[in-house]
């Protein structure tokens, strides 16, 4: 008990950070419902039994027992309705704007949070601070003080941009352009796999030199970090569906809370950075074309728009219900996995 008490403030911060992702996501759906004249009966944060709620003019705002997920309950979302303000009676384009708004809001939040972090901390420049003996970097001729400006056709203004390219190299040779004594030099090397860390490396450490950002640069940093994180997330989900990701690399709500708590202990900007990462990942996860997810709706609505054929509302509701039950079962399995075999970090 004594070891838990000092962590309570950080646990609360982690819960609030995760809740922010859900609120922003559902707020996107809610705002587009209002703009498109769709009646919303419930706006819920969390799942499970109701803890308390506030009844508005037509919407009840709920807090539920388990701080995982949330939803906006729309009139006519699950079955046909004659109400002109029902979701089912809106045009495919209006529906598409509603279901895609959650993911878009998560990406906007990520840009905002990354920009705050960029303005507060700046970023690390890709300057070599130390070289590991007999490493690919040493053998290729890299030197301390070299500034890495490009890898192949990819510009690397930041250290994290460079290191992400190395991690994604899969051991293939890469051409690096470095700035040394005001001269650009081309270097070719081949990353090697670090078995312990299960990733590719070239054997260098960063110098730690930081660049401070003004307002415009902070916003640019927010956009670029969001784009980079989105690319990495798509890559992860692609590897996951191909069976190239180990179960030990996948975590659920418990792992997210543990990592968020650790991030909060490290510092507020670290928590903001991790929250931004999670916001991108939540947004992209939701556009996976699977029933009950926003992506399932997006897929069906794009089909309606392109084909001009309206899908049967009752069948769509049945498909989404089955998808929802599958997702709930998957969530239970992931939670059990989180307890039995927690994600290591």
UniProtKB/TrEMBL annotation:
Q: Where are the transmembrane segments?
A: 7-25, 96-117, 263-282, 318-336
In its keyword annotation, does this UniProt entry include Amino-acid biosynthesis? no
Q: Report the EC number(s), separated by commas if there are several.
A: 3.4.24.-
Which GO molecular-function terms appear in the entry? metallopeptidase activity
Which InterPro entries does UniProt cross-reference here? Answer: PDZ, PDZ_6, Pept_M50_Zn, Peptidase_M50
Q: Name one Pfam family in it.
A: PDZ_6
Domain of life assignment: Bacteria
Q: Which UniProt keywords apply?
A: Hydrolase, Membrane, Metal-binding, Metalloprotease, Protease, Transmembrane, Transmembrane helix, Zinc
Q: Which residues form the PDZ domain?
A: 110-182
Q: Where in the cell is it found?
A: Membrane
Name any cofactors this protein relies on. Zn(2+)
Residues in coiled coil: none
Topological type in the membrane: Multi-pass membrane protein
Family the entry assigns: Belongs to the peptidase M50B family.
Q: What is this protein called?
A: Zinc metalloprotease
Per the UniProt record, the source organism is Clostridium frigoris
């Amino acid at each position: 008990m004594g070891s838990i008490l000092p962590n309570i403030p950080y646990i609360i911060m982690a819960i609030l950070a995760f809740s922010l992702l859900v609120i922003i996501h559902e707020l996107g759906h809610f705002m587009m419902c209002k703009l498109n004249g769709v009646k919303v009966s419930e706006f819920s944060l969390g799942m499970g039994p109701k803890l308390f709620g506030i009844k508005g003019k037509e919407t009840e705002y709920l807090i539920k027992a388990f701080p995982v997920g949330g939803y906006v309950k729309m009139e006519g979302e699950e079955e046909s309705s004659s109400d002109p303000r029902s979701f089912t009676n809106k045009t495919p384009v209006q529906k598409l704007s509603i279901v895609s708004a959650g993911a878009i809001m998560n990406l906007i939040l990520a840009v905002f949070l990354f920009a705050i972090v960029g303005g507060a901390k700046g970023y690390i420049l890709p300057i070599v601070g130390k070289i590991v003996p007999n490493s690919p970097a040493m053998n290729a001729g890299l030197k301390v003080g070299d500034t890495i400006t490009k890898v192949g056709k990819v510009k690397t203004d930041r250290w994290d941009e460079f290191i992400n390219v190395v991690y994604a190299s899969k051991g293939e040779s890469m051409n690096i352009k470095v700035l040394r004594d005001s001269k650009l030099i081309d270097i070719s090397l081949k990353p090697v796999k670090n078995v312990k860390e299960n990733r590719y490396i070239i054997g260098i450490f960063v110098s730690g030199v930081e660049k401070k950002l003004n307002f415009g640069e902070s916003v640019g940093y927010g956009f670029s970090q969001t784009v980079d994180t989105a690319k990495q997330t798509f890559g992860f989900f692609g590897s996951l569906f191909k069976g190239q990701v180990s179960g030990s690399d996948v975590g659920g709500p418990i792992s997210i809370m543990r990592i968020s708590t650790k991030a909060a202990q490290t510092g507020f900007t670290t928590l903001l950075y991790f929250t931004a990462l999670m916001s991108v990942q939540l947004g992209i996860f939701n556009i996976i074309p699977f029933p009950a997810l926003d992506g399932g709706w997006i897929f069906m609505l794009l089909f309606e728009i392109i084909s001009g054929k309206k899908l049967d509302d009752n069948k769509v509701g049945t498909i989404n219900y089955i998808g929802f039950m599958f997702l709930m079962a998957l969530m239970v399995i992931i939670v059990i996995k989180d307890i039995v075999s927690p994600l290591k970090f």
